Amino acid sequence: MSLFRIRSLKILRLNLLAIALIFGAATPTLADAPALRIGYVTAMANAPVLIAQQEGYFKAQGLAVQLTPFGDGAAIQQAIAAGKIDVAYTGAPPVYQWFARGLPLQILAKVNYGQAALVVKAGGPIHDLAGLKGQKIAGNARGSGMDVLLRGYVLQSHAKLTPDKDVQIVQMPVGNMNAALDTGIVGAAFEWEPFISQTVLRGTGSVLFDVNQALPNYPWYVIAATQSTIDKRPNDLIKLLRANHQAIAFLYAHQAESNSVIAAAFKLAPVQTSDGKTVAPEAIVAEARKRLGWSDEITPADAAFIQRLMGYSLQQGFLTKPMKASDVIDTRLWVRATAAHN
After folding, report:
1. CA 269 to chain centre
2. Could you check whether 36-113+218-269+293-338 and 117-214 share the same CATH topology?
3. Which pTM was predicted?
4. Considering only CA atoms, which of 300, 302, 284 is closest in space to residue 113?
């Protein structure tokens, strides 16, 4: 190849590069960046991640995301440990339990408060917590956040019962719990929204113990990521936290619209009440709001509750030694993300 031709090719490449820069083709775009893989527990309490996607908040931040639903926090932590997801919308117990096993996870922000209740069959034989003795209780996966809350807070602290001795906890997906309750497979079910409201509105189930009434505004789902993701993609995590913050604001400012988004996301069907009335899907969501709410700030009281959950996990053998909540909470990116909004 002649020297003249080589120089001509170099000039051509430089000209093409200049054109690309002028028209922005060389600027990284949302499509160019690897998607942030987000796993979330399928619960109404995690609505902010669905709202952020639906309302375009992730896209407005220039963040590509890939959302994957999971049945419980234990399954999410297995996925994050296997490198299949980058970020988790999950309960705090699986985060600190995996941290104790050597997986460097950090809680970046809160997602919600409230959500759980113990439901029994309407008109059935169980009328108080003492009546749970000898019964089967539908519960989530062993070691999951809901499992820790059921065993430690509800059964031990309030019912004064010993899990696995005084009651039998039957693990099953939350979507199966109402049917198990209706058919008598279990005497009670520890579940979350919108499943609680569905059985209450139908008149087939009754709330025996509402955790949010006993412990108002207790923190539940959190946003967690591995230290590797924090180190490698801090700006993307800040974008995620901003979108989550915007979604929470939307949930309160546009309740009717957000109720429709949630109803569609969960494919909720109308509920027929015992007196023949029809309750629309959006009304189911409105009922569920009575037992939960959303906030992304982790307060000192929230950290204290996570510390309390760690104590329950230690008692139940899910932890082998004491931990401090501060070991797994790092809100520095949240502070940066929300500085302009607070």
Report:
1. 22
2. yes
3. 0.86
4. 302
First to last CA, the chain: 63
Confidence of residue 32 (pLDDT cuts 50, 70, 90): low
Q: What is the rounded CA–CA span in Å between residue 74 and residue 140? A: 9
- State yes or no: pLDDT of 323 exceeds 90: yes
φ/ψ of 206, rounded to 5, equals -135, 140
Tokens of 337: 């993300």
Looking at domain 36-113+218-269+293-338, what is its CATH homologous superfamily? Periplasmic binding protein-like II (3.40.190.10)
Cα separation of 177 and 190, whole Å? 8
Instruction: Return the pLDDT at 342.
Output: 53
Helix boundaries (H) for 289-340 = 300-315, 332-338
Sign of CA pseudo-dihedral 211, 217, 218, 223: positive
ω into 194 cis (within 30 of 0) = yes
Least confident of 12-26, 294-308, 321-335: 12-26
* Homologous superfamily assigned to 117-214: Periplasmic binding protein-like II (3.40.190.10)
Instruction: For residue 207, give the 3-state DSSP assignment.
Output: strand
- Cα–Cα distance between 318 and 145 in angstroms, integer? 11
Cα separation, 186 vs 135, in Å, equals 7
What's residue 341's pLDDT? Answer: 58
Within 13 A of 248's CA, how many CA atoms are on the CB side?
20
At 35-61, the pLDDT tens digits run 999 999 989 999 999 999 999 999 999
Nearest by Cα to 290 from 209, 175, 212: 212
Domain coordinates in residue numbering, the chain = 36-113+218-269+293-338, 117-214
Q: Is 167 left (phi over 0), alpha (psi -120 to 50) or beta?
A: beta
Cross-strand partners of 151: none
